Amino acid sequence: MFQRVNRLAIELPEVEYGDVNAASAVQELLGGKFGEMSTLNNYMYQSFNFRGKVKLKPFYDLVASITAEEFGHVELVATTINLLNKGASFPAAPDLTPLQNGKNMRNAKAFIATAQTSSPHDSMGLPWTGENVFTSGNLVLDLLHNFFLECGARTHKMRVYEMTDHPVAREMIGYLLVRGGTHIVAYAKALEMATGVDVTKMLPIPNLDNRVFDAARKYEDRGYGNVLFTWNYVGDYTDINKIWKGPHPQTGEKLIVKEGIPETSGKVPNLDELPEEFAPGIGPDEFHAIAKRLLAKM
């Protein structure tokens, strides 16, 4: 089972303006083939379907713990999209066309279907699909797929970073470049443990250091690229330390396993109401009636 914490993985900047077309590009990092929906569901189903959990526990622990982190990455990218959609419409009577900007945006569907928020679609509006999930049951093949998936995800993050200079998008991408890079190394080391082949000699893919990106450099400086978390406080996934050990293959820094979740996090933003989208569609009278019902003695 999973336990949810009402915090984001990092603190996102508070800005007064959005960038709706940037939100469309960032959708690729959520619902694209190499987006966070794919990393989450690949690792989640591989952990559900893992055969030999006891005999091969370090490998199971690795996939299972990264699964838990990916839930937070989905939330972080979705929240970024929501913030990038800020300020694209205005409250007004329907005849004043308050959603008029939507018809000129790359993702008009966000104005029509989701009240200017995220959805499990790619940058062109195509829906994410379970066809993106690979769970073969073969340990080495699944690990190799995960390594490839993370490298593809890293490539897409780099490209979207170069498409927008919006501070919210760049903060999110900078963080995920570092954490995704950590997962790449983790799967490379797991493959080495399983096969004896040192896959880390191929890194980084693409051949560009995270420190080239201003928004990623500070997370590297804080050591986020050297640590894996168990996302659990009762010792269930601590055997990842049998894989995640020794020096980092690129930096030489010591690899660390920490039980639980990161100590630092960010607040979940309270999205503005959009009366022109009828979202949430609760006016003062309805809110008063709801409050009375909520406070009434049962």
The percent range for helix content is 40-55%
What spatial order of strands do you see in the largest sheet? 1-2
List the domain count as a whole number: 1
Radius of gyration, Cα only, in angstroms?
Answer: 21 Å
Number of strands: 2
Q: Give the terminus-to-terminus CA distance.
A: 31 Å
Protein name: Mn-containing catalase
Binding site for Ca(2+): 61, 235
GO molecular function: metal ion binding
InterPro entries: Ferritin-like, Ferritin-like_SF, Mn_catalase, Mn_catalase_dom
Structural write-up:
This protein is mostly helical. It has a single domain (7-295), classed as Ferritin, core subunit, four-helix bundle (Ferritin), CATH 1.20.1260.10. It has helices spanning 20-26, 28-31, 36-49, 57-84, 109-113, 139-161, 167-195, 214-221, 284-295, and strands at 227-229, 256-258. It has a two-stranded parallel sheet with strand order 1-2. The longest helix has 29 residues, at 167-195. It is globular, with a radius of gyration of 21 Å. The mean pLDDT is 96.
